Automatic annotation (TrEMBL):
Domain DUF6970: 77-151
Protein name: DUF6970 domain-containing protein
PROSITE patterns given in the database record: PROKAR_LIPOPROTEIN (PS51257)
Pfam families: DUF6970 (PF22311)
Claim: Signal is one of the keywords in the record: yes
Keywords, sorted A to Z: Signal
Signal sequence region: 1-20
Species: Hymenobacter jeongseonensis
Stretches for region Disordered: 26-51
């Protein structure tokens, strides 16, 4: 009895759909005119939404590097090459010159040091991407970017 009811339901649905004359075409269906540039090929409805942005190149800082910074660079070079590569940039921030060292990878903190080599804060990275919260205005208030060093390997 159950099978008979299911069969009757299927027949009813099939007859109801047959009356609608549903037609499906796919992108592989050739245009009726035979030409792809004819009226069957619609024009794009919007402009490209991904505009290439030129990479921002920091001005290179050629001033003498403090001993603590030379030691940080030597430590990075003693390890295997990181991806992305390590970069150290200097900025004016909070009325002083600070040094920003990029994070080695994913969810790790970048670090900002004062001119004496003391850790000021970790402005980005971590699980939230917002760093340690000690300098939430760093991105907004940093100025005078200079590339101090980047891993040449």
């Amino acid at each position: 009895m159950k099978n008979l009811l299911a069969l009757a339901l299927c027949a009813l649905l099939a007859s109801a759909c047959a009356h609608n004359q549903v037609s499906v075409t796919t992108p592989t269906t050739p245009p009726t005119t035979g030409y792809a540039s004819g009226p069957d090929t619609p024009a794009p409805t919007s402009a490209n939404t991904v505009d290439p942005v030129p990479a921002r190149v920091a001005v290179s800082d050629t001033t003498a590097r403090p001993a603590w910074l030379k030691a940080r660079i030597a430590a990075v070079l003693s390890e295997r090459k990181r991806n992305p590569i390590t970069r150290i940039l200097s900025y004016s921030y909070g009325g002083q010159t600070v040094y920003y060292q990029s994070a080695p990878c994913c969810d790790q903190y970048s670090q900002v040091f004062d001119s004496q080599g003391r850790l000021v804060c970790q402005p980005d990275g971590g699980i939230t991407g917002k760093g340690d919260g000690k300098c939430p205005d760093f991105e907004k208030n940093k100025a005078n970017e200079k590339l101090v060093w980047q891993d040449p390997r």
